[in-house]
Amino acid sequence: MNNDPLKQYVALRQSLLAEKSKLETRLAAINQALNSVAKAVSVTKPVAKAKKKISAAGRARIAAAQKARWAKIKGQAKAAPAAKVKVAAKTAAKPVVKAKRKMSAAGRARIIAAQKARWAKIKAEKKA
């Protein structure tokens, strides 16, 4: 009777299920211990600092100060003092954009001629 494969299978299955049950119980105890440790430690994520907003007047003072620095470097007349700059309301018109600079036909012709000369030199070196 001991050699009956069906009985051996049933006995093996029962022992494996019992082992599975023991392991699940042990795993539940380990998870509970880990959760209690995690709650005790209470790891918190760092909170991102709120971005500081600068007022329009502050931006205008910074811009005026930078313009004054550039004027000093370039040797031009001083820009308006930073402290006395007043800012218009938010509905003020946007500054006028400068016109795009254009290249003269003669300048473009010189660049084209120089580039053709460079390529001619490269091609001549390859042939030689």
Mean pLDDT: 83
Task: Give the beta-strand count.
Answer: 0
Provide the succession of SSEs. Answer: HHH
Low-confidence stretches: none
What keyword list fits this structure?
128 residues; single chain; mainly alpha
Question: Please, could you describe this protein's structure?
Answer:
It is a single chain. With 128 residues, the protein is mainly alpha-helical. Among the domains are: 41 residues; 33 residues, no CATH class. The longest helix has 37 residues. The mean pLDDT is 83.
Summarize the structure.
The chain has 128 residues and is an all-alpha fold. It is built from 3 helices and no strands.
Topology summary:
Blueprint: H1 5-41, H2 56-74, H3 105-127
